[in-house]
Amino acid sequence: MRKLRQWTLNHPLQFVSVFMLVYFTWFSLLEKYAQPVLMIHSKLDDKIPFCEYFIVPYLLWFVWIAGTFVYFYIKSRDDFYHACRYMFTGMIVCLIIYTLIPNGLNLRPEITNNNIFSRLVDMIWSVDTATNVCPSIHVFNSIAINTVIQHSNAFKHKKLVHVGSYILALAICMSTFFLKQHSVVDVFWACVLGLILYPLSYKSAFDDSRESEYNVKAS
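Structure (tokenized):
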């Protein structure tokens, strides 16, 4: 385990690349072969209207996650490793749940509007099936990256960043409702998972002296 930690510290980008290769391979296999045995639904889902304009915060998720990782990698390796540990652990837990209990949704309505927002939603739906949804990785990662930002020393005195991160995380979570990408049940369990793994947002998995060394180099 210690050798693995040292390798991760010495090769952070390779570590992330290996993880993402494993994650996307696993997820793609589930998307292709897993047949839902549990359909997720709540009465509250039926009361939430579809709104294609929420595609904007939904897509901002990709920029936010990637941008924060790049910033942490350059400015704070400690936060970078916290984010990796928190998010990657949760993502693996979600994949295990999808594997053991394949689940899906039947919430997506027919898109009748013809505007750029509707076309973007249709594009997202075409590449992201309504399976493997509970817990929502989209929501979990939003919670995780926001939590790491709130704990980050890099943003310790930047209240505007803290507030903006909270607002963006909330908007992204709401977008999954209004785009019918997820049920409120998916979001609830993503929040539960985020709470369970919360200590990983600030408790380092690596030797403090080595982390300090990398933080000095990064600065």
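The longest strand covers residues 38-39. The first helix runs from residue 2 to 10.
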